[in-house]
Amino acid sequence: EHFQKAVPLAQLAVENSTAALRRLAAAWRNSWNGTAIAIAGSYGKTTTKELLALLLGRERTCATEGNLNNTIGVPLSLLRIDRERHRFAAIEVGISEPGEMGTIAAILRPDHVIFTGISSKHLEFFRSREALLREKLRICRAAADRGGRIVLPERLALRRAFRSFQSNILLPSPNGGRYRLPDPSPAFAEDFALCLALCEHFSIPADSIGEALSLWEPPPLRGQIIQTEKNSYFVDCYNSDLPALLRSARAFARRFPRRPRCYVIGGMSELGVDSERLHRRAGRALPFSRGDLFFLLGPETVAIGEELVRRGLSPDRLKIFKEKSALAKALIPISGPVYLKGSRRYGLETLVSADGREALPGN
Fold first, then answer.
1. Are 280 and 308 in contact (CB under 8 A)?
2. Are the C-beta atoms of residues 268 and 278 closer than 8 Å to each other?
3. Per-residue pLDDT reduced to its tens digit, 25-65
4. For 161-175, 187-201, 205-219, 346-360, which range has the lowest pLDDT when averaged over its residues?
5. Are 286 and 308 in contact (CB under 8 A)?
6. Bridge partners, residue 62, by sequence
7. How far apart, in whole angstroms, are the C-alpha atoms of residue 320 and residue 256?
8. How far apart are CA 16 and CA 138, in angstroms?
9. Phi then psi for 49, rounded to 5 degrees?
């Protein structure tokens, strides 16, 4: 919005830089003849986006980098499209406030949408769950108005909010069982089924899909396995809400079914007035076996601990921490599988480094 004399680049000063960025991205999107796919929903978006890009072919697919999924991130993602090389764009879309999805939809103009699921995350910014869902569905309306497909789990297709999209809905493919999945968890199987439905719609050959699956690696902080000398860390720390927490905890339990396990769980943020209720629901549904240990971080996790004890977890197998440094010290003698899950503000991934070194107690 002001010329930067210290920056040795050609510059264009505009009245509003955010509005200018969006106009540039919209113009670039309109000049491209490829297929734009929006990845929407409250959880599983990044894994689904990465999986879809892999199945469609990374060389011909422009995919959102990291978590650039908001009203600034989506324009930046669109400006990475190479009109000569990219046939597809797999663009993750996320919102936290009213009005944001309408802005994103107008810039992205999605040809198709994969809608992973709905939860109460970011509910504190909306008057009700219905208002939150209505805002999220604006991306589906944008695709439907272009005659596009909306791929979503069958349980969502039965909800009244999706009835107006019935002629556009594409349900998960029943052919998922033909493929050997690199991740045995039900959550991964569901994400794959959504991607597969769209790939089959695009007539992607089965051999190509199978070959791509063999190259799959989980995105950082999303079900990532880090092996240390004495522990196997299951790192799923990018964000957390109730469905995401339960999906990943069950994946961890399935991956490490026999040995005593240590669950390290931070609180779920941005849940508004439903926070305690949803934390209690988590405590009533988290998987555990005899001998498992739970380390909980944050005041909201007290509700999780109370429900776990009601379900039969021995109180001496439960510890609630106010500070991450104290939790890190408690982890020092632990050996075996360790589950790390919590909202971003807890940064639980710092308890282990990507090269397999346990963090120091002060980290």
1. no
2. yes
3. 999 999 999 999 999 998 889 999 999 999 999 999 999 99
4. 346-360
5. yes
6. 89
7. 23
8. 25
9. -60, -45
Q: Residue 40 pairs with which residues in a beta bridge?
A: 115
Helix (H/G/I), strand (E/B), else coil: 220: coil
Q: How is residue 254 written in tokens?
A: 């399935």
- For 2-35, the pLDDT digits (tens) are 999 999 999 999 999 999 999 999 999 999 999 9
- 51 within 8 A of 185, measured Cβ to Cβ: no
Angle subtended by helix axes 302-310 and 275-285, to nearest 10: 40
270: left (phi over 0), alpha (psi -120 to 50) or beta: left
User: Across the chain, where does the E strand assignment appear?
Assistant: 35-40, 61-63, 88-92, 112-115, 150-151, 169-170, 222-227, 231-236, 262-266, 293-297, 318-321, 336-341
- Here the tokens at position 187 are 């959550």
| Bridge partners, 37 (sequence order) | 90, 112
Characterise 347 by phi-psi region: left (phi > 0), alpha (psi -120 to 50), beta (else): left
CA distances to 6, 247, 284, 320 from 287, rounded to whole Å, are 56, 10, 9, 18
CB 334 within 8 A of CB 232: no
Query: Strand ranges (DSSP E) for 18-128?
Result: 35-40, 61-63, 88-92, 112-115
Q: How far apart are CA 338 and CA 5, in angstroms?
A: 51
Judging by beta carbons within 10 Å of its beta carbon (0-12, 13-18, 19+), is residue 158 exposed, middle or buried? exposed
Q: Which two tokens stand for residue 243?
A: 């469905």
Burial class (CB in 10 A: 0-12, 13-18, 19+), 258: exposed
- Per residue in 100-140, pLDDT (tens digit) is 999 999 999 999 999 998 876 656 667 777 888 889 999 99
Identify the helix (H) or strand (E) that includes residue 310.
helix 302-310
C-alpha 31/C-alpha 83 separation (Å) is 8
Return the pLDDT at 185.
84
**b/e map 159-197, b = 16+ CB within 10 Å:** eeebeebeebbbebbeebeebeeebebebbebbbbbbbb
